[in-house]
Amino acid sequence: MPARILAISTATPPVAYSQRELFDTIFSKWYADIPDAEKLFMNTTVQQRYTSWTPEQLTSRVLSTAERIELWDESTMAMGRRLLSDIFQQVDKSRIGSFVMATCTGYVGPSPELRLAGEFGLSAGLRRTFIGHMGCYAAFNVMKTALDSVHARPDELVLANASEVCTVHLRPEATREQVVTHALFGDAAASLVLGSVDEPGDGPIILRTRTETVYETTEMMTWTITDTGFRMTLSPYVPFILGEKIGPLIEALCAEEGIAVGDIRWWGIHPGGPKIVDFIGNEMGLSDAQLRASRHVLANYGNCSSATILLVLEEIMKTDRPAPGDYGVLTGFGPGLTMESTLIRF
């Protein structure tokens, strides 16, 4: 059953640092023994990122995983408070029956969505789902869980959230792979409210979702827990795999709704890195205008893991202002390799 996005809001930590400032103050020292570190770092096309700590905090000493989780919790709650304050100016919070939250950058119990629900006076009978450690595509699982809730209880609204504090896991590991990884990630959070298509409003309607996991590539992207934070690995072959698999995935998604891929006007591609956006754009024959929102988010926020695709969606809605009836596709990727896609109608 389709559902309508009735509200959307995004938040970041209060301070952004330019890519040049981050390299000069932190990473040039960490990667002094890697000859092409600066080139690798700046070629990501990221121009600035929001971080939950200052460069001085980051370079003072190597924090333990426990200390990093404490910082994650503080930042997640701060962003969550701003999101919900904004969201509840757009919808009636008394109608929220379910709250779904995803993150892969920290864990604590009681989890943030429970504490936020209590602070904002949501129902004691609220259904809550916490989705952890799925990576950059987790916002799609948040939306799918929310869709199930709307289908089961169409008289209620569902609050959906993706919150990531990626920068608490930056670590001084001097490898070329970690140069690229540490050059990409930033911090952000985003929330949606979904309701029945019968709800009044002009928000996008979620029509279909589709998933494909390429099981033989499970080692190409990983996210593991160490004593000094979480560690990501990212194979340079990932953009090639995604470029090869994206066409059949989107064709199948559109076929389920009885439309052609050529009917899709608006594209939200998770900007895991510039090559991913370029490879998918080339494979699908997309224009620079259709890739604009993804490139804008990568340049101004970096890759914020699961929150990123919702930043892209908000950018499309606010800046491009699709016409009513236009079709759009959101697509994201993560460990597995897992590919997620969502068909929407504005």
Brief summary of the model shown:
The chain has helices at 19-30, 37-42, 55-60, 65-87, 112-119, 138-152, 176-184, 238-257, 274-284, 288-301, 308-320; strands at residues 3-11, 16-18, 48-50, 96-103, 127-132, 157-165, 187-196, 205-213, 221-226, 229-234, 264-269, 327-334, 338-345. With 346 residues, it is α+β, with helices and mostly antiparallel strands.
Number of distinct helices: 11
What sequence of helices (H) and strands (E) makes up the elements? EEHHEHHEHEHEHEEEEHEHHHEE
Strand order of the largest sheet: 5-4-6-7-1-8-13-12-11
Helix content: 25-40%
Work out the count of structural domains: 2
Distance between the termini: 16 Å
Rg calc: 19 Å
* Derived structural class: alpha+beta
CATH C-level class of the largest domain is Alpha Beta
- The 3D shape can be described as globular
Task: Describe it.
- This protein has 11 helices and 13 strands.
- Helix 4 (65-87) runs parallel beside helix 5, helix 8 (238-257) packs across helix 9 (274-284) and helix 10 (288-301) packs across helix 11 (308-320).
- It has 346 residues and is α+β, with helices and mostly antiparallel strands.
- The chain folds into 2 domains: 3-196, Thiolase/Chalcone synthase (Peroxisomal Thiolase, Chain A, domain 1, 3-Layer(aba) Sandwich); 205-345, Thiolase/Chalcone synthase (Peroxisomal Thiolase, Chain A, domain 1, 3-Layer(aba) Sandwich), CATH 3.40.47.10.
- The strands form 3 sheets. It has a 9-stranded mixed beta sheet with strand order 5-4-6-7-1-8-13-12-11, with helices on both faces. It has a two-stranded antiparallel sheet with strand order 2-3.
